[in-house]
Amino acid sequence: MFSDAFEIHDDRFRSLILPNVHVEKLWTGGRWLEGPAYFAAGRYLLFSDIPNDRLMRWDETDNSVSVFESPCGFQNGHTIDREGRLIACEHGSRRVSRVEHDGSITVLASHYLGKRLNSPNDVVVKSDGSVWFTDPTYGIDSDYEGQRSPSEIGSSNVYRVDPADGLLSIVADDLVKPNGLAFNQNESTIYIVDSGATHSIDGPRHIREFDVAPDGKTLGNGQVLATCDQGIYDGMRLDEKGNIWVGTADGVHCLSSGGELLGKIRIPETTANVVFGGAKRNRLFICATQSLYAIFLQTRPMARPATT
Q1: How many CA atoms lie within 13 A of 153 on its CB side?
Q2: 68-80: per-residue pLDDT in tens?
């Protein structure tokens, strides 16, 4: 029997979940959790508690949670690059940064054409080493998740940092509030959440899919893949079959690569971000409002393509 935590909408979902597993609450005590990143070598998870301006660390060996960094620039989304370095989106400093192996910080992006970024939100690294990130205004809309400030750029865009020269370019400028993003397995498609419904009742609450040009530097043909039926979509990760696991108001939705709703993991708090981790990479870690959750699944994260 499958747990009541699962809501099955398509029989394909049954092959992705396990019987007799439970949603585990690993920790609570935050204000708005985001940006989980799992470090397999250390068996720990880092995640953001944005309003409290701290980066938290959950230890898989003893289930302890501690403050990893505070203040941390109101960090939001994270990813780990091919060299095992943490890349962070900082609301407070309005930049994307990288923690080097010696602990020093490299700023990857902070300005576009001389104007400060809004508040970088989520980030991914392509196999060519380029860094792609979204830049809505959530961190400058109030003093709760950053510092209230007007947008210098005047729009919310998706950017690419070139690995060769560090130049910043806009790859998508037609989203209202670009949010979570992820490449498919062969990097021919990028999925980008538009959560503009946070600012307008009729605003977008969907995932768009864009074709990645053969040069790997530009996007085209942006189409709506799926529209959220509960709240808005937020952060997402893909599994080994190309399914999309994405946070939203009633938990985690699992979508096929064609945008069909396969099933849901019910979480009692609004869910922001997810990431696969654990010893066999079959454990989904879930950042949801005040708490960190986890559940074991019958799938693993999408394999990274070879470095190009």
Answers
A1: 23
A2: 999 999 999 999 9
β 244-248/178-183 pair status: unpaired
**What is the widest separation between alpha-carbon atoms in the chain?**
58
Task: Please provide the size of the chain in residues.
Answer: 308
Q: What is the pLDDT of residues 188-206, one digit of tens each?
A: 999 999 999 999 989 999 9
Which DSSP category does 196 fall into?
G
Contact between residue 87 and residue 81 where contact means Cβ atoms under 8 Å apart: yes
Do 242 and 231 touch, CB atoms closer than 8 A? no
70 burial level (CB within 10 Å; 0-12, 13-18, 19+): exposed
Q: Is the pTM of this model over 0.90?
A: yes
Tokens 């620039």 belong to 73
DSSP per position, 142-195 = SSSSS-----SS-S-EEEEE-TTT--EEEEE---SSEEEEEE-TTSSEEEEEE-
Cα distance between residue 173 and residue 159, in whole Å: 9
